[in-house]
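Form P-L/3: holo structure prediction, ligand glutathione.
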Amino acid sequence: MIVVHHLNNSRSQRILWLLEELGLPYEVKRYQRDAKTMLAPPELRAVHPLGKSPVISDGELTLAESGAIVEYLASRYGNGRLIPDNRTPEYLRYVYWMHFAEGTAMPPLLLKLIFDRIESGKGIPFFVRPVARAIAQRAKQMMVLPNLQRQLDHMEGELGRHEWFAGPAFSAADIQMSFPLEAASARGGLDTGRPKLWGFLQRIHARHAYQRALEKGGAYELLR
Ligand SMILES: N[C@@H](CCC(=O)N[C@@H](CS)C(=O)NCC(=O)O)C(=O)O
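OUTPUT (holo model):
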């Protein structure tokens, strides 16, 4: 039995979605973020040394890193579904977006989350708040926000060429890309002004497998 170690409001939601798309049986073991720090509880470190989610167990195997998990599940159990034929241009695009999601799209979204918190002053001693706030604002203006805008423009342009990230057919790369796009709509400035990306979010949210995964995973609200 596949076990998904699922942290609330996290990347592991897309693993549940993938398993629903593939129609595989699985068990969800839930973990709750600390309400103050939003970090994962220490029990996750007993499953994998980094203590992050997602992690899956499948028999003797324990596997972390969402891209690796998506690739493993789709290639091991997909019977050719959700991965384009590796002799096609779709396959190269599939590989590109599978890596882009965590390697390029997520870092500025994470930085935005951190700098927004610093800017809000929460948890920072009052006498250093003005300096911390100024540094956070400068870093956002100089690096984070321009990168976010460029990335959103790039993704919007690519989705203008095909309905899904790898091409005309829905693939596991769309599942992997869902998290940065959901995070971008929560805190990265993605809205109806980018109709292709917005439409992508509407289409994935309407999928039955996506909705079943939400029922299995519980409340899903991305950090702002
Ligand atoms: N690149 C990793 C990132 C894993 C990660 O940072 N997971 C977050 C959840 S979205 C987490 O566990 N955060 C809680 C913590 O860092 O304590 C992946 O894609 O699996």
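COMMENT: The mean pLDDT is 96.
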